[in-house]
Amino acid sequence: MSGEEMNLRGTTGISEVFVSEKRWFFSFGSSTGTRCVCLLLELTFITAAMVQKYQSPIRVYKHPFELIMAAYERRFPTCPLIPMFVASDTVSEYKSEDEAIHVIERRCKLDIDAPRLLKKIAGVDYVYFVQKNSLNRRERTLHIEAYNETFSNRVIINEHCSYTVHPDNEDWTCFEQSASLDIKSFFGFESTVEKIAMKQYTSNIKKGKEIIEYYLKQLEEEGITFVPRWTPPVACKLESSTSHTRRPVSPAVNVPDSATKEGLNNKEILNISSSPSELTAGTPDDKLDADYIKRYLGDLTPMQESCLIRLRQWLQETHKGKIPKDEHILRFLRARDFNIDKAREILCQSLTWRKQHQVDYILDTWNPPQVLQDYYAGGWHHHDKDGRPLYVLRLGQMDTKGLVRALGEEALLRYVLSINEEGLRRCEENTKVFGRPISSWTCLVDLEGLNMRHLWRPGVKALLRIIEVVEANYPETLGRLLILRAPRVFPVLWTLVSPFIDDNTRKKFLIYAGNDYQGPGGLLDYIDKEIIPDFLGGECMCEVPEGGLVPKSLYRTAEELENEDIKLWTETIYQSASVFKGAPHEVLIQIVDASSVITWDFDVCKGDIVFNIFHSKRAPQPPKKDSLGAHSITSPGGNNVQLIDKVWQLGCDYSMVESPLICKEGESVQGSHVTRWPGFYILQWKFHSMPACAATNLPRVDDVLASLQVSSHKCKVMYYTEVIGSEDFRGSMTSLESSHSGFSQLSAATTSSSQSHSSSMISR
Questions:
Q1: Taking the model in full, what pTM does it have?
Q2: Nearest-CA neighbor of 613 among 758, 510, 449?
Q3: 343-349-351 Cα angle (round to 5)
Q4: Summary count for the chain: helices (H), strands (E)
Q5: Does residue 242 register a pLDDT over 80?
Q6: Does the N-terminal peptide bond of residue 636 adopt cis geometry, omega within 30 degrees of 0?
């Protein structure tokens, strides 16, 4: 560290003073037991904006609520475990007559362990924050609010905590915590400040549980192992037995800042505390607890836990399809270094991809061709020393050219996807078997026999595409890759393949030439001797196919392979359609019985579209397929059908039964329409053009960006429609019940207001 930059830490390890060039700022906080407040103070003069949020998992104390409260109260007015926590003064206090409700506000003083000169520059000797506790003994809840008072015009810190009874065990107590940090100004060094502040906050979060456990042990040493629950006084019991109209006291909530600042009286405070609480105890179904995370997901830092919880919650609120498992969400977070925005973007893209290609059902619905079963030299083989599933691939013995000529790229890709899906399933099984989180597998690749035949260009092209798909949709699933017996031609293959492999993944590669894998640091360091395959000199019989040359009699013609690829690509209940500017895609649905229900489910894969529903008493002319060649588009499985004749007039030949629905790229839309008349209904997906700015002829920035994203004026949708009798329909019977779920960073900016003039409902 240079002379202009230094770190000055106190002996407690709690406070930190960071001096860099001509900037001074402090980071200091108390633990969860004292209500974690990571207070960041700065002396700068340029405004900026940055907000960081934290959400904890549910932490469980296996002690009754009343005993936890007795331990919690012992850390006031000061706590010896936190030397910087000098004192706390009671600002206001309220107790109900029956002592069930106790609301107390404290002003807490912190003594920063920093040089006197630095304190003088900051202009403060102590730093203050305000903490409000709302205890409801009847409901057995404690809700806490804390916010900084010092330098509140520059840094805004808010924290909310709650102690509640465990939903499944009334003798256990749950703790949950959330916080936000808003840095108003920092000379443009917001990123640096953010890292320092969040690091400091993270280091203090875990200390809260230690403090509670410290005071629990202290109580036990004093012979206090049980605290009786609150019971109503005798007078209250008599009163409640004679009065049948008296309302019970509801759980207490945190008293708003304005309540204490404006000086509310006891009666007003009681009215506030009697309102329903906004903070409720979570259940195992909708929230994660710390023990579950440690058992099934591994040791995560508090901020990593927070990222997982927040991304999971976002999916529950916005995603209408199947929610991925926690370990899968965690993989995408790890792939983007726990950057929520980046992880959310690639995860949503992957969810859309899985839905389009029905990947969730691939193990149950797809049987590999016999050629793959006979000549694909790969298979699962026990596990490595860390408990990871072990996949063995004898690439050198595999005829990649023959497999591509016999099956095509799509069949090979689908087979690799099934292998990855099986790997996810085996990771779950091994997590249960070994009693620790296992989220990735080990791959052993034997290159014995690799030669120039394997560098056949179409084969390499297929390999690169497979790598691209796997990297995008199965991140952080490869724990280790052992490449054995690499021949001289391997560097050529590696040069072609390595640019398509993520940097984090490449770090997991271990490459051995010749018989080097048999020496120190070789295979025995990662795989038990008992399960080393026989073809590598081990004693374990490996059931992986030996591969070999695919007979040329099994080769397919280029036309057959192209048709087979299209069949596989569209082998789903969804259909693919291309939408062009001036050439919408339309689907005809004939309704015989009124009150039938037309349902739809579609994904906007590319571009923005407008979704319409029309009705006509007469059938349109036979559909006209738009020539893809006219648009210079070659899209497997894509089509464009136009039904509405150009001479038809809206309101005369056909009518619009719903208001148009604008759908953004990356969105998934589900909905239904209850038909009022028999006849012909037309579902239309039309290219959406951005409206021109009315105030000026110059294009807006949004218009330019949109035009760049929708290249060649082409959109693409994957859709599925079905007609159901009204008596069999279980959804909403309102007209056009459409709901959106966003699958891209772009769509996240769309509003949650109603976009249809009828009853179109859009939920984010």
A1: 0.59
A2: 758
A3: 100
A4: 20, 29
A5: no
A6: no
